[in-house]
Amino acid sequence: MNRTLVVLGLRSIAVLGGLVGMAGIVDSHTHLHSFALKGVLDETLEAAAEAGLERLVTVGTDTDDWDFYADLAERYSQIDYTVGIHPCHVEADWEDAFSLIEPFWSRAGKPVALGEIGLDRFHLPRNDEAAAKEIFALQVAACEAQLQLAKQLDAPVVIHSRGAFEECVELIDASGVDWTKVVFHCFSEGPGEMKQLLDRGGFGSFTGVITFKNAESVREAAKLQGLDRLMIETDAPYLAPMPKRGKPNEPAYLAYTATYCAELFGVSPEEFAEKTTGRAKAFYSLG
After folding, report:
1. How much is the pTM?
2. Which residues contact 71 (CB under 8 A, 6 or more apart)?
3. For 10, 20, 173, 183, which has the most beta carbons within 10 A of its beta carbon?
């Protein structure tokens, strides 16, 4: 099937309606379903292309978006997708959804990773300890099963970890998954946690949080990982970077994060784009 290409293909910096675009960058983690639901997907993709985005990895969270993303990846050559059960979407019948994941790898346009999966303590019930314990146990079971499937498929894994970094690391260690195929998306921890990933061969990917004034530990973690191992993402529609903080995020805003990070690492926009794009393509095996 022919796929539509909506990419400018520029290799230079351009000013686009006040947004400084950095050509050739990759949004390694976004959620395009939200823009489709609002009826603004085409405009969102056009803005992303104008901002210099070369590829977008749209990340599955539940059965509601998996087929949509698979179809989207068939239609647009700059879009790739993943499939996985987000910990906040794990319910008592999670095994029914889990049984639908593996068949996606039999498709001509298979996912580029399994995820996002992981653990999330932040959204557990605050005033019901028993319910929180039960839900977290379901998250653990679903994460363990998906890690084993990722190992079987030899697929990269996108990890969601919120308030549960150590538990996620322990689960991955126990699974036997190849750590070089693991990325902790929206890395919001510090250099100590980053060192644990580096010691194992894993990766951290950084959102607009890295631009926040109070995120010095996140910046230290990014610098410890180094530019050669860096991936950037929007996690749109969440976590818009400065100067858009507090507003709905979109893939085009990755240009703000990229520009900020190029300055943080003391490199030219061209070098930053080349390094981070190369890393994202290598991690996800993007053609």
Report:
1. 0.92
2. none
3. 183
